[in-house]
Design brief:
Chain lengths: 181, 181
Amino acid sequence: SPGNKISYSNRGMTLEDDLNETNAYYLEKGLAVIHKKPTPVQIVHVDYPKRSTAVIKEAYFRQASTTDYNGICNGKYIDFEAKETKSPTSFPLKNIHDHQIDHMKQIIKHKGIAFVIIRFSQSEEIFLLEAEYLFQFWDRMKRGGRKSITKQEIETHGHPIELGWAPRIDYLKIIRTLYSF
Amino acid sequence: SPGNKISYSNRGMTLEDDLNETNAYYLEKGLAVIHKKPTPVQIVHVDYPKRSTAVIKEAYFRQASTTDYNGICNGKYIDFEAKETKSPTSFPLKNIHDHQIDHMKQIIKHKGIAFVIIRFSQSEEIFLLEAEYLFQFWDRMKRGGRKSITKQEIETHGHPIELGWAPRIDYLKIIRTLYSF
Ligand SMILES: [Mg+2]
Ligand SMILES: [Mg+2]
């Protein structure tokens, strides 16, 4: 019933929070070992008031050279990026960086599984789009085409993920079906 | 000849530097996609003098919940920790944390490859020790036994890695031989 539908409204949680909970669930159940990588930070100055409590006093955010999440499930290497967009009709490709595309291409070349999880925050819809399709839209942009993937294209080539309780965002189910493992 | 022997002396490089160069070499040659994870940092306060140059003004080092390096080579998930010790005769297990052992056990369970790279800084010797052996010595400690792995035990069960030019620390060669891929 609509009353049981899980919604982002008033939960105060981000896509990242939900993916972290999902990964914690997978880990606890022994289903997969997938972690978010720490935010890359360039540390410039550290104070050592005591040896045990170093305080970073000056640091800067660095651009990630890879995707945010990776790990293993049943012998398969898994690698993905998660992105939210406020646009109701398309996913802007400026959310992805060149080196992240390069990284995902390398992963595919080494027989890993790479994809992106896209959340449309207005409609609260979540999709998994395999990297192979992302590359096609990326290449279209590089050839001078549109700088985004339309929502309809994502609906056509991607896979919707319903928000659940546990796991919240069951992307593994989709991947295990797609790759038969 | 001894004159050609590569040494850490006066190079001013750490084990981590050498592993980063090794991984950059593997990536460039298409041999593997293995990265060091960023140092985990708990960010407390960020200043935004301009939108483009956020400055982290207060942050703290967090303990890593996984190992430092992971990635993929030819379909195989690879995961390892790198540690240096100044002790000439043994590797103190206090260098490893409980959750890192738990993490490596999960990786093995999921058919990944996990190991530790240990450098004895005094003798400049580097060894690769598979996680399965690390677990045995860890369990010995937990049963009240010695809190370190002797260098002789590492020589018996581990694999020496010669320092080279490119790649500097060719751990992949050992792993590909051990696991036949
Ligand atoms: Mg990111
Ligand atoms: Mg470490």
